[in-house]
Every structure is written in C-alpha cells, then in structure tokens.
Amino acid sequence: MSTEKEIKRVTTKTLALMKKKGVKISSLTAYDYMTAKILDEAGIDVILVGDSLANVFQGNDTTLPVTMDEMIYHTKAVAKGISRAMLVVDLPFMSYQLSIDEGFRNAGRIMKETSAGAVKLEGGIRVADTIKKITDAGIPVMGHIGLTPQSIYQFGSYRERGKTEEEAEEIFRDAKAVEEAGAFSIVLEKIPASLAKKITSELKIPTIGIGAGVHCDGQILVSPDMLGLYVDFRPRFVRHYAELNKEISEAVKKYIEDVKETKFPSKEESY
C-alpha cells in the first residue's frame, strides 16, 4: 500500500493491510446521497449507515426506533454516492437479538437489497454465534463492544464502560469472542484508552475507536456531530471540525431578510 488515494475500493482486505502497515483507518457516518458523495470524494475509508440516524435524522432520543426498512432505504441512497469507501450498515435493534437465524436473515436482506459491503452489530460473547453464522455465509461483519447504544435501557446511561477491572476483563473477552467468531473489524466505544490499546495490540483484526483513545487502528464519528450540525448532544470525544449549524442558520436568516426586503431574486436571477 503506497498511498491511500491509490486505493480504488476499500475492502476488508484493505483494512487488514492498513492495520498491518500501521495506516490509520478513517470512518464517518452518512445517511443520504449528498453527504456520502462528499465523504467519499474527500477520501474517507469507511462509511457507516449507522442506526444513529434514529437520533440525528429522525429526532429520537435513542437508536431503538429505527427499522430494517428504514436502514435499507438510507443505505440505498448512501450507496449511490460511494465509489471508493467501504460501506457498512448497522443491523438495527431487534433485527438480530431474537434469534441467530433472524440475525442471519436480516444481514442477508441488507446485502441482497443494498450495495453494502458489510453489516455491523452490537455485543460480544452473547452475539458470537450470530456473527459466526453470518460470516460463515460470506457476509462480512463489523463488531461493536464497550458502550452499546442499543442496550441503553439495560445500562441506564451512556457512561464510559470498562472502568472497573471486572468490566474491563469482560470487554476484553467480548473482543476476543468477536474476532474468533469471524468479524473483520470491531468498534470500541467509550472505553478507557488503556483498555483499547490492549485490545488493539491483542487482536489481529482492526479496531475502530469512538471515545476510546488514539491507539485504535482507526476512528469513527457521527458526521452531524463532527460537522457541528447536531449540537444538542456533545460528548467529550466529539471534536467539531466545522460549525455548520451556525453557518446554515446565518445563511437562512440572510435569505429570509433578502426575501422580505425584495432583494432576492435580483434582475439577473429572474427570467
């Protein structure tokens, strides 16, 4: 791998090679064609159609309400904007928790009905058999451990996971189980950087961090968060690379002013 821009299409093999060579993996979420196209052309490695669309797109308090049909709808739109990045899709709440076969069927549905390159699901040991069933059928799976938003009501808060020795050991076992089940990579969310570093060094598959420190093989953020569009929720691991909420608001106010004062449209903008 010489330069990242020379990669024609990011695949599971690409990500494995990036880990081996120490090249960090960049990941962001997208829920629509235009955003996906911008991210892809900028050179992002992985685009996730996350169930976070329930929050930032639909306005829900949790990720639980989003459905399989909605995930597929958004993925179809996102896929049209991608030519280079790997496209990963979240399996939404209750699409794989009911049974192994249900998870297998829904993973297959996403792959069949969209242009996705992989699916992602939350959990460690408890979903290892589901991951194995899916990967045995040739469907790439990205794992997700640590803070798992679909289990928010079980934990009762979005607090950091793995702070106690017992919980850290449990997360480490989850990571190993996900790898052994056949996952090609794993998201580590909101765990101590020291724990993420240990997991990253022990696993052969790439780790993608979100609130898990700099030692992961890559990082992921929710795009509306890092772009400063969604400002109602800002955990400390989110860095605003832009303040689009403010910029868009100012643009809309200027438009309203121009319309009210008949400054828009001008003679040149009229037929």
Average pLDDT over all residues = 95
| Shape assignment | globular
What's the CATH architecture name of the largest domain? Alpha-Beta Barrel
Q: What name is given to the CATH topology of the largest domain?
A: TIM Barrel
Strand order within the widest beta sheet: 1-2-3-4-5-6-7-8
What's the structural domain tally? 2
Our Rg estimate from Cα atoms comes to 20 Å
Provide keyphrases for this structure.
271 residues, TIM Barrel, 2 domains, 11 helices, 8 strands
Briefly characterize the structure.
With 271 residues, the chain is α/β, with parallel strands linked by helices. The chain contains 11 helices and 8 strands.
Sequence-ordered SSE layout with sheet pairings:
Elements lengths: L11 H10 L3 E5 L3 H10 L3 E4 L3 H4 L11 H12 L6 E5 L9 H14 L4 E3 L7 H9 L4 E6 L5 H4 L9 H16 L4 E5 L3 H10 L4 E4 L7 E4 L1 H4 L17 H17 L11
Parallel strand pairs: 1-2, 1-8, 2-3, 3-4, 4-5, 5-6, 6-7, 7-8
Describe the protein in words.
This protein is α/β, with parallel strands linked by helices and 271 residues long. It is globular, with a radius of gyration of 20 Å. It folds into 2 domains: 4-240, TIM Barrel (Alpha-Beta Barrel), CATH 3.20.20; 246-271, no CATH class. Helix content is 41%, strand content 13%. It has 11 helices and 8 strands. The model has no long low-confidence stretch (mean pLDDT 95). The N and C termini lie far apart (53 Å). The chain has helices spanning 12-21, 33-42, 53-56, 68-79, 100-113, 128-136, 152-155, 165-180, 193-202, 223-226, 244-260; strands at residues 25-29, 46-49, 86-90, 118-120, 141-146, 185-189, 207-210, 218-221.
